[in-house]
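Help!! Second protein's tokens look totally different from the first
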Amino acid sequence: MRFWIFQLLNGLTTGALLFFVASGLTVVFGLMRILNLSHGALFLLGGYVGLSVQHFTGNFFLAALAGAATSGLMGLLLQQTFTRTLLGSTFNQVLLTLGIAFILNNGMLAIWGGLPQKLKTPDFLSESISVFGVTYPSYRLFLIVLAFAAGLALWVFWERSTLGAVVRSCVDDREMAAAMGIRVDLVFASVFAIGASMAGLTGVLGGPVLGVYIGLDFEVLLLAVVVVVIGGIGSLNGAFVGSMMVGLIDTFGKASFPEISYFTLFAPVILILLLRPLGLFGRILPE
């Protein structure tokens, strides 16, 4: 029983981190029709910047702020510089964003080196507590609670706020939104920057759990794309449900069947897509 509780908590922790990454990725894809394959590199960039800031200041929250701001600014720079190219075709998106990911990856390798490093957990979350008889790090529990709180806050913003309605109108019909006076270009830039900053913030939040190392960006990107496919493009509800599903499946698969962990992850994905080709919460995107 202790094994199942421990792996359940591990799966929820992984799912929490995936949600922060995948929510930005799926909204950018749903709004701008851009599959940003540099999203994982922005995640790792935030982690490395946070690592350096924490090293010099000793403050985890300053590190999180710096990681989010750096990745957000980098994302905005990429979006503003390559908007015309990114919106040109899917081939352009894949080639350009993948190339940017490799460039950022090599830049981080040159600056921070190739050895795995880890951020220090905040002091007030460095203890462990008992959960149903299982001693579990309080920081990981904090990530789970934070993900559920963030999911609720994003749902309220998306479904109940005026700004959320503006973004949804751009998702559903960008031409009509522009005709009504909405600055679609400003919405695009803001959403892209916020998605990038969330990736950078997650790089810092995941630093004490996953560490930061070259190659982590593509590992996280793969799982985030799986989440988007399962949950449905452009759906925050789908991103949350898909993240928790992928986190649990990946964790239990690696713990129980490490030799076939990729099979245990992708077999359910194939099954879901056979039954729901657009994902659990997906719908046909307007052209």
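Here's the second one for comparison:
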Amino acid sequence: MAKLEAGMTRDEAFALLQEHNKDPFHIEHGETVEQTMRYFAREYDPENEEFWGIVGLLHDLDWEEHDDEPEKHTLYAAPLIEAAGGTSELVRAIQSHTSDFNPTLPKPELQMEKILFATEELTGLIGAAVVMRPSKSVMDFEVKSLKKKFKDKRFAAGVNRDVIRSGAEMLGWELDELFARTIEAMRSFAPDKDTFQAERPTE
């Protein structure tokens, strides 16, 4: 696969995230999605793991400052990323995960973009479910438990189930496969971060 250039290092991306996000939850959400993306990159596109990770880290860069305008989510982020040296391909990948809000934005085409679209909301649902467990760990969390939470629309009501379904369809995966693989992805970095803050789902 072609080499993808983010135009910034991981440290520079994290500094940018911290500049525009003060709520620890939002920073943790970015890191969770970053590590989930890195997990899938190692399977599908190992040469570009850093790029996948930075996309995950910055995908909600502008959410905290502009959460009252969901239809403009990622539009505010674009100039911030560009000013920090980010490439047009980095901006495109990030904006693709909000194409359901704004049809003028690019739809996911690359495997990386489809995985971001499918897993970003799902990691929030998993995090919300895990924090309710006695262990507060994803290591003993199973697909059957996730399916129950997914069906209960009152649980983590801010998580858009339709986006998760659409993401699975884009990937050509059954929901159960998406659930199992995302749990596995989150387990892969659980030794470093196996507890989650109370979830307030972002978009």
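Reply: Different proteins will give different token patterns, so don't panic. Residues 6 and 87 are 5 Å apart (CA to CA).
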